[in-house]
Amino acid sequence: MSDARSEILARIARATSTGSPSSWEEIPRDYRQSSTASDRELVDLLTHRLHDYDAQVVEASSSDAATAVAAMLKAREVSRIVIPPGLQSSLLPPGFNFIEDTGLSHAELNQCEGILTECTLAIAETGTIVLQNVPGQGRRAATLVPDYHLCIVDAAKIVATVPEAIERLNPTAHLATTFISGPSATADIEMTRIKGVHGPRFLDVVLLLE
Predict the structure, then answer these.
(1) Taking every annotated instance into account, which residue ranges of this chain make up the domain LUD (predicted)?
(2) 164-170: which pairs have CB atoms within 8 A and are 24 or more residues apart?
(3) With 60 as the cut, is the pLDDT of residue 21 above it?
(4) Which of 55, 94, 176, 198 has the fewest CB atoms lying closer than 10 Å?
């Protein structure tokens, strides 16, 4: 038996023994929960992880956000885009057909080429974007049905680790929450990678640095 397997089984035995903690709060959490990385390092790490997931990333200032959005949409040849209620109007460039999701049916969402949203936060270590059912992000169906997702990520909302993200999400834990790590992809038994099974096939990110 390998050392790794022995350690896993030993941990399971300890966790399920009669002397196990009586509550979640008593469980030791001695894993790394934070980071000393600078803001720039977090931006670079998140970008690197997103590139690993085959997502495109551009940096922009708040004043240039609409220009960056337009460039991304043109590059993807997307013109009919769903937007959630409450999305900042300053993010919307002219020349595109933005359709507000006021309860669109799945068929209507499927007729749209993509969706533009903001996010609650992003996790640098895992390259994960977190969405919640709030203004500017919208309901889950709207972000899963269209084939393309363009997400605006404010650099101030980037955290380093998953524990930091969970702590920040505690106050809004009752909301529907979606964790996105790159475009939707899966593999069949023959290890053929297929994109778009559980959500958008394509993901782009505009990182706002100011």
Answers:
(1) 108-208
(2) 164/33, 164/34, 164/35, 164/123, 165/121, 165/123, 165/128, 165/130, 168/121, 169/120, 169/121, 169/130, 169/132
(3) no
(4) 94
Share of the chain above pLDDT 90, in %: 71
Q: Determine the Cα–Cα distance for residues 155 and 38; give it in Å rounded to an integer.
A: 11
Cα torsion angle, 8, 13, 19, 25, sign: positive
For residue 9, what pLDDT band results from cuts at 50, 70 and 90?
A: confident
Residue 13 is predicted with a pLDDT of 79
Are the CB atoms for 145 and 101 separated by under 8 Å? no
For the domain with range 35-208, which CATH number is right: 2.40.50.140, 1.10.260.40, 1.10.580.10, 3.40.50.10420? 3.40.50.10420
Report d(CA 102, CA 167) in Å as an integer.
31
Q: What is residue 94's three-state secondary structure? A: coil
pTM: 0.82
Place of tokens 């020349």: 95
What pLDDT digit, counting tens, does each position of 88-142 carry?
A: 999 999 999 999 999 999 999 999 999 999 999 999 999 999 999 999 999 999 9
Q: Could you tell me if 124 and 49 are in contact, meaning their C-beta atoms sit under 8 angstroms apart?
A: yes
Closest CA to 84 of 121, 50, 123, 114: 114
Q: Residue 51 in contact with residue 87, Cβ under 8 Å?
A: no
User: Which residues, listed in sequence order, are joined to residue 80 by a DSSP beta bridge?
Assistant: 97
- Per the listing, tokens 């001695």 go with 30
